[in-house]
Amino acid sequence: MITKFLEGTRNCIVDDGHAIHLEYYLTETKSQENSNIMGSLYGIEIVKKDSQFRSEFPIESDSIIGISKNKERVKEILNQLIAHTVTPITLIYIIEDCFYKTPPLSS
Fold first, then answer.
1. What are the helix and strand counts (H, E) for the chain?
2. According to the model, what pLDDT value does residue 107 have?
3. CB atoms < 10 A from the CB of 16, how many?
4. Element (H, E) at 66
5. CA 23, CA 58: separation in Å to the nearest integer?
6. In whole angstroms, what separates CA 12 from the centre of its chain?
7. Which long-range contacts (CB under 8 A, 24 or more apart) does 74-78 make?
8. Are 19 and 37 in contact (CB under 8 A)?
9. Do 26 and 42 meet the contact criterion of CB atoms below 8 Å apart?
10. Higher pLDDT, 79 or 14
């Protein structure tokens, strides 16, 4: 079972002058074995909506479930995503960079 917690929102104007609304969620997945709850895994979901029409239906969304067992670490990453107005389409690339940093090329 996945539970979502709204952690923040952003409104912004994209290149064509169109306004979008972004919602950032912390997700929690409870892992269980048989009927015993073993622990929680935390993830992130970003939902992009059209600000002009205030639609309940997202234009796009993406989520990564089970990033870490460390809730505070995932919240730190989520706060950085909010601060930099990350959209759903780039979420996977940003998370990959956070966990699998490529060393710089030496010259």
1. 2, 4
2. 53
3. 5
4. strand 60-68
5. 10
6. 17
7. 74/26, 74/42, 74/43, 74/44, 75/7, 75/26, 75/42, 77/44, 78/7, 78/8, 78/24, 78/26, 78/44
8. no
9. yes
10. 79
Spatial distance between the Cα atoms of 30 and 13, rounded to a whole number of angstroms: 36
Tell me the two tokens of residue 94: 């940003």
Place of tokens 């969620």: 25
Do residues 8 and 57 touch, judged by C-beta distance below 8 A?
no
CA–centroid distance for 66 within its chain: 11
Overall pTM > 0.85: no
pLDDT tens-digit readout, 36-94: 667 899 999 999 998 766 566 668 999 999 899 999 999 999 999 999 999 999 999 98
Strand 2-13 and strand 60-68: the pairing is unpaired
Residue spans of the domains in the chain: they are: 2-99
